[in-house]
């Protein structure tokens, strides 16, 4: 296709190739220490498994659907936490020739699966609760509240360990696990409230009602995780970035005529990428424009992984289909 330069800005190394100007800026993968994420998840996993066993047998002994539903959440959480631990481990594996981004996307797949399992567990609980409306069984409310209180303390401890050691705000995998734990905490609170109502008023229908309310709250959080994970897997623009603003910023650079084939996507939590073509005037310094574009994207939009192709009117290439 002729002759030009490709600029690969990778760990401050610049390599010259031939024809189009490219900038690859790969420094600055803003990940929280994966060991911290893993440690927080492992602590939460052990706590969750222990409380799951306690609430399951406690629910059978007290005949409480609220406790059994909470143990069901715990079972789902244990699986999700185990999956999240595996995802963190996979993400540390190096890239290979046939997986050039490594295994970072496994974290997104884990988050999606966790969101789906939350939906399934909540659905089963709602179905069982509806069946109990006509003849709510008698529940041993005192022991039920005691077990639920222990579960609540354990959930708070698990959530605290994830918040302290991991990145629950920016890492969707950890956030999905964190939501599972918060769902369990809600379930424990619901069981305590239901136990109080049954103890004071003898309204055993409170048990299935509280179970449904807690399940609906869990479904809301799960839907958010599923939407976010699906958006990433569909190569959607990161929610923190406005693609129109990015295009305007690049077009405002002196000498740039047009910005096209602009794509912004997320590889995994905290690692966004951008690629685009810049059509410039023939008499412009393409390297100066390239450097300015890299800095614009990094400073204004916090995207450090960029691939920018510089073109003049003499360049002819097929338009991308998307």
From TrEMBL:
Protein name: Cobalt-zinc-cadmium resistance protein CzcD
Region Disordered, annotated ranges: 1-33
GO MF annotations in UniProt: zinc ion transmembrane transporter activity
Cell compartment(s), UniProt: Membrane
Taxonomic classification: Bacteria, Bacillati, Bacillota, Bacilli, Bacillales
Residue stretches making up the Cation efflux protein transmembrane domain: 41-234
Source species of the chain: Paenibacillus pini JCM 16418
Membrane topology classification: Multi-pass membrane protein
GO cellular component, one term: plasma membrane
Keywords linked to the UniProt accession: Ion transport, Membrane, Transmembrane, Transmembrane helix, Transport
Coiled coil (residue ranges): none
Positions of the Cation efflux protein cytoplasmic domain: 242-311
Transmembrane segment boundaries: 41-61, 73-91, 103-127, 139-160, 181-203, 209-226
Biased composition, class Basic residues, residue ranges: 7-30
Family: Belongs to the cation diffusion facilitator (CDF) transporter (TC 2.A.4) family. SLC30A subfamily.
Source organism superkingdom: Bacteria
Pfam family, one: Cation_efflux
């Amino acid at each position: 296709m002729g002759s030009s330069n490709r600029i690969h800005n990778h760990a401050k190394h610049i390599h010259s190739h031939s024809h189009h100007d490219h900038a690859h800026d790969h420094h600055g993968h803003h990940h929280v220490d994966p060991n911290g994420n893993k440690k927080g998840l492992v602590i939460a996993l052990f706590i969750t498994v222990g409380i799951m066993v306690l609430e399951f047998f406690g629910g059978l002994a007290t005949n409480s659907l609220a406790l059994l539903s909470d143990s069901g959440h715990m079972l789902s959480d244990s699986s999700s936490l185990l999956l999240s631990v595996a995802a963190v481990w996979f993400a540390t594996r190096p890239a290979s020739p046939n997986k050039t981004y490594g295994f970072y996307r496994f974290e997104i797949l884990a988050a999606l699966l966790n969101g789906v399992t939350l939906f399934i567990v909540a659905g089963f609980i709602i179905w069982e609760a509806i069946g109990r409306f006509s003849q709510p069984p008698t529940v041993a409310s005192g022991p039920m509240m005691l077990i639920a209180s222990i579960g609540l303390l354990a959930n708070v401890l698990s959530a605290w360990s994830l918040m302290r050691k991991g990145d629950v705000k920016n890492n969707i995998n950890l956030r999905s696990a964190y939501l599972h734990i918060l769902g369990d905490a809600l379930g424990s609170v619901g069981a305590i409230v239901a136990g109080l109502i049954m103890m004071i008023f003898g309204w055993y229908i409170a048990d299935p009602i509280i179970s449904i309310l807690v399940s609906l709250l869990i479904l809301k959080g799960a839907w958010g995780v599923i939407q976010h994970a699906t958006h990433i897997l569909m190569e959607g623009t990161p929610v923190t970035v406005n693609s129109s603003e990015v295009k305007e910023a690049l077009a405002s650079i002196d000498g740039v005529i047009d910005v096209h084939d602009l794509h912004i996507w997320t590889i995994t939590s905290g690692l966004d990428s951008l690629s685009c073509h810049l059509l410039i005037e023939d008499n412009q310094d393409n390297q100066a424009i390239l450097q300015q574009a890299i800095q614009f994207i990094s400073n204004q939009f916090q995207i450090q992984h960029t691939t920018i192709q510089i073109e003049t009117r003499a360049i002819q290439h097929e338009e991308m289909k998307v």
